[in-house]
Amino acid sequence: MARNQKAKAKMEQVKGKTKESTARAVGNESKTGEGRMEKTKGDLRQAKEKAKDAFRE
């Protein structure tokens, strides 16, 4: 399960960064914000998984 969550976090980060970069290139501020939010969501999920791993050891 943890591996699945880590992969999901990484995908959210990549998807968000891609969306943000693409939107910035075409000047779409709304999509830029969505991309930033998605990337942040992935960052938070990754931090949660790292914290859980730290408590397991």
Fraction in helix = over 70%
Sheet having the most strands: none
Order of helices and strands: HH
Shape: elongated
**Secondary-structure class:** mainly alpha
Over the alpha carbons, how many angstroms does the gyration radius reach? 13 Å
Count of alpha and pi helical runs: 2
Strand content: under 5%
Counting DSSP E segments of at least 2 residues, the number of strands comes to 0
Distance between the termini: 17 Å
Regions with pLDDT < 50 over 5+ consecutive residues?
none
pLDDT average, as an integer? Answer: 92
Overview of the structural elements:
The structure is a single chain. The chain has 57 residues and is mostly helical. Helices cover 93% and strands 0% of the residues. It has two helices and no strands. The longest helix is centred in the last third of the chain and has 28 residues. The two termini are 17 Å apart. The model has no long low-confidence stretch (mean pLDDT 92).
